[in-house]
Backbone:
């Protein structure tokens, strides 16, 4: 898994795939938490704008995935 993404579309695709693996029971919540924490720390300025997920990424991944990402982000 790549850590730093310059292209918001590729970042959104990676976030979407990671959350989908969790929702499909491919990975556990703990692994999801580790992967998302790495992605958020490396790309925080691209993911979060003023404390909320940027609208561009939010539109690409959907509201249910945004909720999962926000939950993990609030726990870190």
Residues:
């Amino acid at each position: 898994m790549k850590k730093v993404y310059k292209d918001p579309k590729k970042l959104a695709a990676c976030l979407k795939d990671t959350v989908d693996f969790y929702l499909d029971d491919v990975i556990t919540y703990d692994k999801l938490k580790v992967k998302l924490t790495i992605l958020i720390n490396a790309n925080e300025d691209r993911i979060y704008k003023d404390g909320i997920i940027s609208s561009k990424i939010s539109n690409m991944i959907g509201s249910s995935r945004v909720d999962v990402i926000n939950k993990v982000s609030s726990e870190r």
Q: What stands out?
A: The longest helix spans residues 29-47. Strands lie at 48-49, 52-53.
